[in-house]
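Two proteins were folded this term; both appear here.
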Amino acid sequence: MSFSAQTTVSDQEPRPDPAPAAVVTSGPDGALFFGGNADDPFFLDDTGANRLVASSIANPGNPNKSLLGFRQGRDTYAGFNTMITAVRVPASLLRGDSQVIGVNFVCQRRFVQLNRGGAVVGEGPYVTVDRQGTPLVNNGLIPPPRKNEYNGASTQDDARGRFDQSITQSLRNLATDDAHIDAILNVHQRNGDILRLDLRVPNFGPQGGNNPGGGFGNMGGRRLVDDVVDAVFTMINNGVPLRDLVNGNEVPFRSEFPFVADPTQPFPPGQNPDDHTRQ
């Protein structure tokens, strides 16, 4: 599949009401493509999560779990925009012999050859510099000294156990018991760090789907509305609920492709305006 189309333009003008529709292009096989600026759809108290993980490193096996929600639901990503590339692909193009689809996202760049002055004089093959499968495995469980190694590795490396020891140590630092460590490794490493979608799991409702039986945790993929942070930290916490108290995005998502909300626009000048940012 290939696409060529105008992207949704980001500007500094106040957003008209109602907002214009997103610019979307389609392929002959029914696939859709969107590229442009949008509200950052992730919702999480990043500071709380980082402090919890840091406390588990400083006090292995005895982390301060209250740090995850100590800011009472402050969304680090509220009020910020990001560049979005979204693709909608008919399931018939992805389905093989199984009803389960595995998705592994990678970001690649080319090796470059530099001369002594720093100028690029040659290019090599593409290499993976970042990857993402199951939410928070890369960000939360891989220790910093191994981040680059993990990003450059493959899901086959995961299945061969290359990172099992490091992930196990991270989980023990967080006071995860052996049964939950084994369950996490079974789902997220021993078959590769791949996000799995069972096409038989129903998905319906506004904002791209919000039915309780679908989405993350039910083999229904990872929907924008799914509170993956609470789900992952609860699993790490041996099934006992552990939440950051950020329960949703600060603005509603669209109910049609590309589902992400319009970008946050500049606010009118005034005294102490609220720009929605919550870092």
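Next, the second protein.
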Amino acid sequence: PRIKERLHQPADYLSGGEQQMVAVARALSGDVRVLLLDEPFEGLAPAVIEQLFESFDKLRHEIAIIIVDHHLDLSLALSDRTVALERGTVQWTGESQLLRDDLDLRRKVLWL
């Protein structure tokens, strides 16, 4: 999203993706070591999702990012480790690469 172009525009008039980027920028304005993203891709257009994904992919090399999301492929692509929860209880934890590569394990762990 082109946030710089919208600098003088009220946040109410920003698109969903632009609002998401403003929220992330506000969260990063301090001395941040961990960023928690709660469903960052929900309800966004595919082009905006791609832009956010690229931003998060660059950012993850600088700070720790925790992603809570139902977009499994995007989350797995951005993460080194995955924790699968069911009703707040840890059901599985391990390297995300394992779930990316092994569809049988993915089905077993995530019931897909």
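The chain has a mean pLDDT of 87. Residues 20 and 40 are 7 Å apart (CA to CA). These notes refer to the second protein only.
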